[in-house]
DNA sequence: CGTTCTACGTATACCGTTCTACGTCAAGAA
DNA sequence: TTCTTGACGTAGAACGGTATACGTAGAACG
């Protein structure tokens, strides 16, 4: 009988036997390696097709590549990451790479465990989206596996690539837009950082942009930053508290869209009109912003482009590039009803 | 020098050397296998910790397990899948299994490629959520790898487990609720099936429930099923066409929530009041339904429970169970403003 | 006291690829 | 002819674990 693997899997040996060549020759065909005649290649290809052979990634990983790329996303609820992944898939659909996702739930221990797991599985490269871990840990990982970071700002001397939009600029656009619309009591509703306030995190950059633009607009005294976790319950409670307080803001700038949706909901519950009593602005311009019942002003950083570029950089880096590259997209404000100018 | 792997990785040999035991002994400790004294176990554990050893999944996979579970989800935009994954993670957080996700974008070729890829990577088991492929293909895969299906109805004689809610019942609840509220022209807005109309697909079951309940309510003549793809543009165009037609429906039942959100948006654009002019109901009861600006009536099938049960079944099946199990949740209607009774 | 368990470790084949080193053959150069 | 050279193939050692078969020592038993 032909040499089968467990589960009756077709092995490279069987293909070699069928084609009447050596195992090494089959391997060469598989990898498009040097030193195979067209004739032999054709013969091997035919046998592979006939037998339905598929190389075992685990075995390949022991010496060569696994043709697997790992992606870490912070959570599954934020649709922005879906946009990024759409771009990634566009870039990768013609390659033989397979992409697998891990979800960290925005928890630092999970992030590390996940990346370690990806390294353990001999992935060829990883793309890490908006992590919370400090930069020297990222460097540690990047030393062991080709790495691209998205939504994480470089600080110089990286051994990995980054892809971002100019978050500070984006936040400035928001604040300028609100001030121009007649809003003054503008609150920045930030992601919870647990006091880390990493320079690399997008929320930090956005806060910097917010502060700078408030200052520039003569509203330094009105600067107010509030943090909230990602759970619906807590966001609503924080926002409710904010909107019921004595000095209620007249505009809330949320670090990401889905927080903005929660704000709209609370405003609705409290019978506040948007934008009459309160303007709301988000970030990322995900598809929810466009729904008429939300009509949420937001910053477009074109997740698709980010994902596409990140995938490109990752492939290059796997290919051997060592110098870091940092791709930056210019953000663009998309104005909608939620922040229309005051009467 | 100690025997290191590539990238200077610590190998099992090095651990064995450091602990002064055989490689086999270390492997046993790793797998909690039979025949190791507490003393030896402790010594090996200490060496592993000291050296920061991590077993290489690819190497383990060649003979044993990879401790990796694969999950296929149809798309990243539908938040329902996030709920399922939350339940999965709850069930798995105390185990040593690592979960990795693949996204099929609801395309059948992608589904197959993805599952093959997971098998190639020697995953210990897979969980497939709401696939479009016919049941005999599922059976094929299930013969090669422990498999659990979620949101895919069994037809008898399975070699895999399933986890579902009673979709037909859920749809009946919706229609009964709408009829009781005084609605008569009820349209079912279904997922595009490309004419496949697989008995296994949830949308088919929901349609069956819709038809049955319409019939039972004496509204057989009003039955009307419309299909739309998942792209925002097409959904909006289909809905707009529907709402501008001569015989405008007074209620739309959407096969999943995010379609419902699009319907609300179009209604808003057309200045139709909800539920005055049009009632809207979704399915899955994702968090968006609860937002005040949506207030979308929906069917709760508790994704968390589904995910939890599916994970449990998968672990059991990996453990060796052969008989199929089919877990079914009873759906529950959550009424909100979008389908309030007519005046 | 010899025999038989049982508990614990070790030696080693094996998993399915990749990759290095080497052999062979034909064509061209000297 | 003889020697190079390059193109093509092959043999076999890795890769880092797992699992099986076996050895050994001490305890229990008759």
Strand order within the widest sheet of chain A? 2-1-3-4-5-11
Spans of chain A of at least 5 consecutive residues whose pLDDT stays below 50 are none
Q: Largest interface by residue count?
A: A-B, 51 and 51 residues
Query: Count of helical segments of chain A?
Result: 12
Task: Calculate the terminal CA-CA distance of chain A, rounded to whole Å.
Answer: 84 Å
Helix content of chain A: 40-55%
Oligomer: homodimer
- Overall residue-averaged pLDDT value of chain A: 94
The class by helix and strand makeup of chain A works out as alpha/beta
Strand proportion of chain A: 15-25%
Query: What order do the helices and strands of chain A follow?
Result: HHHHEHEHEHEEHEHEHEHEEHEE
Q: Specify the biggest β-sheet of chain A.
A: 6 strands, parallel
Q: Count of DSSP E strands of chain A?
A: 12
The rough form of chain A would be described as elongated
Characterize the structure shown.
The structure is a homodimer of 343-residue chains. Chain A has 343 residues and is an alpha/beta fold. The first copy, chain A, has helices at residues 12-19, 23-31, 38-51, 57-63, 80-92, 108-120, 135-144, 167-180, 202-216, 232-244, 257-269, 303-318; strands spanning 68-73, 98-103, 125-129, 147-150, 161-165, 186-191, 224-228, 251-254, 279-281, 298-300, 326-329, 332-334. In chain A, α8 (167-180) runs parallel beside α9. Chains A and B meet through α4, α5, β2, α6 and α11 of A and α4, α5, β2, α6 and α11 of B. Chain B binds a DNA duplex (30 and 30 nucleotides) through residues 5-6, 9, 11-13, 21-28, 30-31, 33-37, 40, 55-65.
């Amino acid at each position: 009988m032909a040499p089968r693997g467990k589960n009756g899997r077709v092995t490279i040996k069987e293909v070699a036997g069928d084609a009447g060549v050596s195992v090494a020759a089959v391997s060469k065909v598989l990898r498009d390696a040097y030193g195979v005649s067209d004739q032999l290649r054709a013969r091997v290809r035919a046998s592979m097709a006939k037998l339905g052979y598929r190389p075992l990634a685990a075995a390949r990983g022991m010496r060569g590549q696994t043709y697997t790329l790992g992606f870490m996303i912070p959570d599954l609820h934020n649709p922005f990451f879906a946009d990024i992944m759409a771009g990634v898939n566009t870039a990768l659909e013609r390659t033989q790479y397979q992409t697998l996702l891990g979800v960290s739930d925005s928890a630092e221990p999970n992030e590390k465990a996940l990346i370690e797991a990806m390294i353990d599985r001999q992935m060829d490269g990883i793309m890490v989206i908006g992590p919370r871990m400090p930069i020297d840990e990222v460097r540690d990982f990047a030393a062991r596996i080709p790495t691209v970071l998205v939504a994480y700002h470089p600080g110089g001397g990286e051994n990995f690539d980054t892809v971002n939009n100019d978050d500070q600029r984006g936040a400035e656009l928001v604040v300028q837009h609100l001030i121009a619309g007649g809003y003054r009591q503008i609150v920045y509703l930030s992601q919870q950082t647990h006091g880390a306030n990493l320079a690399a995190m997008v929320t930090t950059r956005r806060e910097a942009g917010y502060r700078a633009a408030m200052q520039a607009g003569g509203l330094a005294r009105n600067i107010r930053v509030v943090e909230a976790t990602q759970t619906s319950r807590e966001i609503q409670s924080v926002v409710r508290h904010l909107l019921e307080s004595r000095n209620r803001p007249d505009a809330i700038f949320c670090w990401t869209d889905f927080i903005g949706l929660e704000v709209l909901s609370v405003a609705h519950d409290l019978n506040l009109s948007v934008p009459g009593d309160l303007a709301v602005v988000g970030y990322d311009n995900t598809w929810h912003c466009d729904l008429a019942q939300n009509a949420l002003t937001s910053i477009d950083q074109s997740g698709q482009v980010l994902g596409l570029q990140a995938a490109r950089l990752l492939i290059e880096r796997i290919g051997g590039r060592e110098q870091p590259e940092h791709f930056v997209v210019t953000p663009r404000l998309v104005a909608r009803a939620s922040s229309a100018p005051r009467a």
